[in-house]
Amino acid sequence: MSIQVFGIQVSRGVAIGRAVLVASSRVDVAHYYVGVEQVAQEIDRLRVARDAVAHELESLKADMPPEAPHELAALLDVHLMLLHDETVIAATKHWVQERHYNAEWALSAQLEVLARQFDEMEDEYLRERKADVEQVVERLLRELARGAPPGRPTASIAPAAPALPGASAPALTSMPALGAAAPPRDFAGEDPLVLVAADVAPADMLHFKRSVFTGFVTDVGGRTSHTAIVARSMDIPAVVGAREASRIIRQDDWIVIDGDAGVVVVNPSPIVLEEYRFRQRQSELERARLNRLRHTPAVTLDGEAVELLANIELPQDTAAALEAGAVGVGLFRSEFLFMNRGGSLPDEDEQFEAYREAVSAMHGLPVTIRTVDVGADKPLDRAGDGRYDHGLNPALGLRAIRWSLAEPGMFRQQLRAMLRAAAFGPVRILVPMVAHVNEMLAIREHLARARQQLDDAGKPYGPVLVGAMIEVPAAAVMIERFLRHFDFVSIGTNDLIQYTLAIDRADEAVSHLYDPWHPAVLALLRQVIAAAAAHGKPVSVCGEMAGDTAFTELLLSFGLRSFSMHPSCIAEVKQRVLRVDTRQLDAVCAAALSAESPAAAVQAALVQAQRSA
């Protein structure tokens, strides 16, 4: 029977495929594929873990004191029986042999199957036996973690998936950070795959770039959570905040992800499936048409040049930026170099190589590198230091520039790496979440010390421009003072909206209150853009509003001439730019700043402007 699951649309398009379910567990579980030559080893790991857990339970039973309750011994017998039950072990081996799941993932997948079977039982006593299965599986998972070979991941999403028909076979080599190999070519079959999970960490999302998952669904998240942002940068359909999706959807279910409507259709009927396949074909044709604009200069009908830049997460993303026709990188999120590293941080040389790679790849086009922006929904795993705990409210805690200034050695190390990369091309340094004058002065002092340290070491470096992200309302209100200390500003609309409206943008429970059209948000945007223009300082928007065509004419009416977005959005925004005459946008600006319902007022003003043209 077909089921519809509703969530939040975060990345356009339609994905159709079989569900690869990453089940939630009280034990962190690694999810990755193994090669043909590793299948026997994984099955052996399962056998060794089962024998170890069985020995442990038998020892507990043997050492049980005489006065122990009889029920406890009976419970241990039940657990021992489950350990040797073919429903658990043989079926788990099947996931390894047929799907090439690693042992931990295979156990989690089989636990999900069994849990559903128990939930559907009419007998209450039998339903409650699900807890026994969960406890046995968790013992096995812990034993597998203890006996994991060196270099194996301990808790991550699978970074690679089977190759689709017609695609070249992925190499059986280790992947960065996770060390997972892609399965062999003949494992793929003909079915595309989509990922379903309770949540996907931003660092793990990056590994999707090396996979052939055609879309994903998560139970939690909001439109501007960083998981959603990375999904859009990959240009794959995604729905987040779908609440119970990972419980409703079963392994291997056929599902449709409607990224335009925020709907997931589980086991669609043939008629519905064909309708979505038709939409897929239409979308591909539209993208091919837009792709022809990639090398066309972004100039309005009245001759206003508009700068369309790209947001990237890793140096390799520069290829997609250039392919999309970006004239530079407006936001390089350096924090992804710091994440998923088990607590270690990249040293100066490692950072320098990453920044140099990005700068060199852009062939003289500017690259704006943001200093590390960890915290909130991008936690940094620094065990043993209480300052790096999530805290009561991580969005308002030690994050972004606050964290950098609290780690001066690390901060200067990053600044040195950026300065050295500037010897290979134009670099702009962007500082996130600045809100205080003393932060501005401290940033300049650290930069001066970093230059002096490079001079002392005899290392070459280049000139840089230093800018501030305007994402805290205090910074927008103080924009005149900020412009005295910075060479440029970039508006991070995602956090600016979050902090202006007091909305946690990653919390689907309040996502309906996250409103880019809120009059207060629009007033702050207009204020910052106008002040920068008056001082002759460059200003751009690098948040999600920049890539949303619903806001293109509005931002142009505010005077914005520099947009930074995901490469996949550039062609569509460029099409809007090419069709607009900025001389006819005065009414759009006025409507946005005065109307009680700015979205409707702006749309009406645009329609009127088109009629008058």
Strand order across the largest sheet: 1-8-7-3-4-5-6-2
The beta-strand count equals: 16
Q: What is the SS-derived class?
A: alpha/beta
Number of domains: 2
**CATH H-level homologous superfamily name of the largest domain:** Phosphoenolpyruvate-binding domains
**SS strand fraction:** 5-15%
Report on this structure.
This protein is an alpha/beta fold. Strand 4, helix 7 and strand 5 (213-218) form a beta-alpha-beta unit. It has 23 helices and 16 strands. The chain has two domains: 3-270, Enzyme I, Chain A, domain 2 (Orthogonal Bundle), CATH 1.10.274; 296-612, TIM Barrel (Alpha-Beta Barrel), CATH 3.20.20.60. Mean pLDDT is 83; it is low at 156-189 and 383-389. The radius of gyration is 27 Å and the shape is globular. The two termini are 51 Å apart. Helices cover 44% and strands 13% of the residues. The longest helix is centred in the N-terminal third of the chain and has 24 residues, at 39-62. Helix 1 (39-62) crosses helix 6, helix 3 (86-99) packs across helix 4 (103-119) and helix 12 (348-361) runs parallel beside helix 14.
Q: What's a quick, concise take on this entry?
A:
This protein is of the alpha/beta class and 613 residues long. It has helices at residues 39-62, 70-83, 86-99, 103-119, 124-128, 130-146, 202-206, 226-234, 245-248, 270-291, 318-323, 348-361, 401-406, 408-421, 437-457, 473-477, 479-485, 493-501, 519-534, 552-557, 567-578, 586-594, 598-612; strands at residues 3-6, 8-11, 14-22, 193-197, 213-218, 238-240, 254-258, 263-266, 307-312, 329-333, 367-370, 427-431, 464-470, 488-491, 539-541, 562-565. Mean pLDDT is 83; it is low at 156-189 and 383-389.
